[in-house]
Protein 1
Amino acid sequence: MKNPYKLAFLALATFFVGCSSDSDGGSSSGTCESDIAWFQTGKYEKFKITQFGFDAGTMKLSFGECNGDGLLSTMEFRNTAGAVTGTVDNLFWQDGAFLVNDANVDGIDFHKIYKKNAALNDTWTETDEDGAIITHTVVDTDSLITVPAGTFHCKVYLREKSDIANVSHIFWNDEIGQVMEDAEFMKLELMEYN
């Protein structure tokens, strides 16, 4: 069985996305300036990870200081006993309407994971190094969902990749950030945030 924490990182890292029919696959690093409410130094989100219906621990994403190109971030993974099992450092920045993540996941250096003021049917694509196409589509703009952290109105992004069968539904709240991701075999649910 694959490492559930690596799967959670891949799902979360590829979740933060972009803009209508934007096919450039990313951008160079940006700055630390942002008008996205939840994307600020000192903010964090902690998620419950469920894999194949079973508790697989937690992941906490913390936004740190600016390095001049964006906000340094840390994803800390803990197992079901609460022990730290791994950390992943990466960089986030705002590029126009998009939040960009420099995670080098799926052969793409930059992922557009969130779009400010996303509208129904907005679509953007990215191409990974082996030619697989990742398509993001806004499929709902007001979905009411309940997770351990509470009940939230969310926009729903559908993420599809041309070389895999499963899809992900990613739930974003414009004031809070990511609230949930359902990738069929794995689910991330917001537990706490600041």
Note: The domain at 4-193 is CATH 2.40.360 (YmcC-like fold).
Protein 2
Amino acid sequence: MLSAPVRLSFLTASLICLGALAAACSLQRWAYLPPCPLCNVQRALLAAIAVVSLIAALHAPARRGARAYALGNLGLCLLGAGSALRQLWLQAHLDPAQALDFLNAEHVFTPSTGYAAAKVYVLGTPDCGIVNWSLLGLTLPEWSLLSFCMLGALAIYPLFRR
């Protein structure tokens, strides 16, 4: 049986993910900020962490099961942090004029093959480097990185709890 503090940490992680997803969808809907491919990856990873955490909180496994759930969440958090770091790198190193030229081009980027789509969702596109919103001086990928770090800390807790 899972202890109450560990169960609460999984439930907290699930609520943090749902809050972050609600904020992202609200920004998309009311601030007209369409998500780029890396934003979509981060949203999918947040949703996966929410599902794994909710299942862990409801399942309430023994210590070994809780550690398995925590390792799964930690892996998803590392992938999300990597995606957010890639987007931050694009924002720091991409020329904004290059991104705007790409977006205003006559062609629309639609990957037709699986390899091209996977490459886009791993490496991003020039529009991933555009900074179009910030809160308290932090851009969306910085908030996303902060969320994945907090969720990673919550995932580490069950691993070291006796």
Note: Confidence is low (pLDDT under 50) at residues 102-108.
Protein 3
Amino acid sequence: MTKLDRTDARLLLALCDIPRATGVHLASVLGLARNTVQARLSRWDDSHTLAPMDRLVSPRDLGYPLRAYVGAVTDQHRLEAVIDRLRDIAEVTEVVGVSGGADLQIGVSAADADDLYRVAGLILAVPGVERTTVSVVMREAIPYRTRPLIERLARENDNS
């Protein structure tokens, strides 16, 4: 089930192509009423459908070119406290709960290998973190993306 429909998908694709477009311009390009576009943009804003702007800023441009993922095994009784403490480490860019050998995968950005060592130590020092493994990103093969999913939504609803 999706919260978005074909019109939403068309509007999102237009924003992917022209991120700074005004509501009036988007309405014109898509053949929609300006109020329809504004209502959808407002709804997305209210429901946090679009990711925050900081997701668009590359850590590389901020002086942190080295990326890594830290797998962390945690004391399950302290998991939420661990996550709260990880929020305080500026170099932590994301944290996801996973199944498998680790409980958390922690995305980090660092200035260099020495800085990564320091950040990994900060993570390991969080009460409730029992052990960690670090995997350095050698190359970004497919950057985070949702456009193919948006395109699919636009196509699937074409036939209904």
Note: Strands lie at 66-74, 92-97, 104-110, 129-136.
Protein 4
Amino acid sequence: MIEMTVAGIALDASNRKTPIVLLKDGTGRRALPIWIGDNEARAILMALENHRVPRPLTHDLLGNILKTCDVLLERIVIHSLQDNTYYAILSLRQGETVKEVDARPSDAIALALRCDCPIWVMESVVADASIPVDRDADEEERQAFREFLDSIRPEDFSQQGRGIEDSSTS
């Protein structure tokens, strides 16, 4: 397994501006793009920006339930890619008991960010779906990409007028 971190959220310009969460490996040489729904993109961005809301949203609520029940989210694992759909599990520990729960990667990532737990991806998934990151890219291009990622906000994913439904392909 390869530990990965969230590099940010991007919009797929070729696909009706569908959000993509970008995971990167520790070396920064590979990125794993996962197409996600608007709500999950908003939830991930809110966690990345430490944005707090007056009342808990779904992923906040689930994190609160885990904490209240003394359940630790040890890690999430994106374990397979089948027919362009990623599959993940939540690894939960309560005392000596460990259980795995099926989850969409987008929801698992949003929860992992809130619970400060690691994101792991199976080597086979990285081999099949990752894209190389050009480490020799011009610094100007890297800076422009960083600025683009920094400019994206949760409100950019408003569903009004977009005609995009919540996708279960993540």
Note: DSSP finds five helices and eight strands in the chain.
